[in-house]
Model the fold of this input.
Amino acid sequence: MNNFSNSDAELIQATIDNDQESFKIFVERYQKPIFSYLYRFLYQNREAAEDITQSVFLKVYQNLNNIDTSKSIKSWIYRIAHNEAANYLRSVSSKKESIFDDEQWSKMADQKEPEEDISKQYTDIVQTALKKLKPKYREVIVLFYFEEKSYDEIATILDSSTNSVGTQIRRAKHQLKKILDSLAPDLAAIFIVLLSLLSIKRGRTL
Amino acid sequence: MKSIDDILRKAKSEVPELSERFSTNVLLKIKEQELTILPQKIIRSQINWFSLIIGIGLLMIALMITNNAIFEIQMSGSLELLSFGTQYLSDFTKYLPLDIIIPSLFITAISAWLLVRSRMIKRGVTLVVAGSFLVTTIGGSALAATSLNGKIQASIIKEKTNIPIISWFYKERARYHMKHDRVQVGQVIEQNSQFVLIKDPYGKTQKIYLPIGMKVTPGQFIRMNGQVIENGFKAAIMQHCNPTSAGKYFMHMGMMMPNEMNGNMMEHHRHMKDSMMQNTGMMHMNKQ
Done:
């Protein structure tokens, strides 16, 4: 079954026929979701996410003749992005560079003014906790909760089974809960206060 | 208390905008690096299908080999040893056809690897590997439990068909070869007040002294645990065998089927018995 939209197929064919402008349109169609996924997966490192998004589209260009027509084009590009991100994480960890910046965490711990921007701090705390997750767990969380992909789509992207994706998400949530529980007591307290304030604030606006 | 799902859904971070010239930069990079569209490779899905088919094929071969290994164990007569409890467990293990079992395990492992590599079965590696071994063992056992092997063996021996390896296996390997000083198996030919004459699966007539009170009738298959004595075998324990499985031990001897003796065999037994009685009589006369 061909899952490509006609325009995708036309753009790909035109690119193969040496029409570079068609590939530009194709890139513009998919650059945003791919960048968004990489940005969230790669610890909100804009520079890395942009570089990898670029290399993803270079790979896409080189492999236009070898697209697996049994899968959706979007999932195929996501799959390339997943592989590129995995390579990047491997290279970073082999250079022993810490992706998770402890300083960032400490700075956040000092932010004890919930009235400043409740929603932002709430997001930051969860994001910081997410940074402590193993990449494989972090990735499924990003794809499912932030990129709003279905289990089937995630399974295609990760070349795994739907059941396995479900298991990974369950384990990821379990790990995340543990991380949130193990946070410094003051942070845990802040987190609870933030949640309550957020609820109260939302209640008032309603 | 908020659930972790709610927390995660609300924690979606903002994503900055990509630079406006991003797509242009991609095209520039393509030009700079002189990238070209690679020619069409053999479609990956074809390789995957090939791996899947070869994997399944090997799994079926492993299943057949496992079936043969189980059939050889059944035919060897070594299972009779286990009928007398775990005391003969180590003797039983000597009859395991490891030269068949190990290649079967090896082929199963290769097929599991191919199935995983094919990526066509969307299950975890552990599950695919475990599933492959289960298919081989359960499938092989199920096949060995059917009458298929017996039919193939009968056809090969009776019709003298010659299929390389398969004929050799059913003629030479899958046959009774259990030998134990303390265990005897055979079919009752005759019983008198003192002893029983049995025909063992090697075709030899044996004189058996049964435990007191034990009665058998000609044609029955029996197994005994005891010891060899001067003029026969003294059984301490006697059990009746399953005629279907024990009958198979005689497959190589004139196609005798369970509970069924052909005319030639009966004639042979009669002749053996007469000569034995004659010898016993002569011995008595010599003593006198």
